[in-house]
Amino acid sequence: MSYPYDSDEYWEVVEWFVWMQSGLGPMQDQANNFYRYAPEKIQYGINRYHTETKRLYEVLENRLEEQSKKASGTDGLWIVGNKMTTADLACFSWINWAEWAGVDVKEFNEVKEWLDRIYSRPAIQKGLDVPEPFEMKKKM
Q1: How far is CA 43 from CA 35, 85, 103, in A?
Q2: Which residues contact 90 (CB under 8 A, 6 or more apart)?
Q3: How far apart are CA 128 and CA 122, in angstroms?
Q4: Containing H/E element for 102?
Q5: Of 1, 13, 71, 74, which shows the fewest CB atoms inside 10 Å?
Q6: Cβ-Cβ contacts under 8 Å for 67 (sequence gap 6 or more)
Q7: Which H helix or E strand runs over 56?
Q8: Peptide bond before residue 26 is cis, with ω within 30 degrees of 0
Q9: How many CA atoms lie within 13 A of 81 on its CB side?
Q10: Contact 4/10 with Cβ under 8 angstroms?
Q11: CB–CB of 28/53 below 8 Å?
Q12: How far is the C-alpha of 59 from the C-alpha of 80, rounded, in Å?
């Protein structure tokens, strides 16, 4: 799930954590708030945070495209290197809820494939069903 401390890949994972916690997480959270929870619908807020969340998805899309150019015979494209890392899981935790924020992940081919690759892992499915089956995704 990680790389040896102080390797280039280790620091790339850290960079993607910072990107997630300072960009993707806060912006998608605001998209969630304006789209789902605001007592009055403020179109400016909805548009602003949808646009920014989609821009951040495009950053991830571009990264995964870049990774696909480097890949050769790996088990899929990941954010850093040739294996799933904690950076993938951290970003997945937000992108898994894209529809809740009003974002259609199908607009981003590489991100959609990456998401499907993560979903295909039995441990992910098992984890999503704790403490009970994850039915919300089907409703989004």
Answers
A1: 9, 36, 15
A2: 16, 17, 20, 21
A3: 10
A4: none
A5: 1
A6: 77, 78, 79
A7: helix 43-70
A8: no
A9: 18
A10: yes
A11: yes
A12: 14
Helices first, then strands: H and E counts in the chain:
7, 0
Distance CA 78, CA 76 (A): 6
Is residue 111 a contact partner of residue 57, using CB atoms and an 8 Å limit? Answer: yes
Q: Residue by residue, what is the 3-state secondary structure of the chain?
A: CCCCCCCHHHHHHHHHHHHHHHHHHHHHHHHHHHHHHCCCCCHHHHHHHHHHHHHHHHHHHHHHHHHHHHCCCCCCCCCCCCCCCHHHHHHHHHHCCHHHHCCCHHHCHHHHHHHHHHHCCHHHHHHHCCCCCCCHHHHC
Tokens standing for 59?
A: 């950053």
Backbone angles phi, psi at 122, to 5 degrees: -55, -40
Q: Tell me how far apart the alpha carbons of residues 69 and 120 are, in angstroms, rounded to a whole number.
A: 22
CA proximity to 57, closest of 115, 130, 122, 117: 115
Q: Which residue has the tokens 């850093």?
A: 80
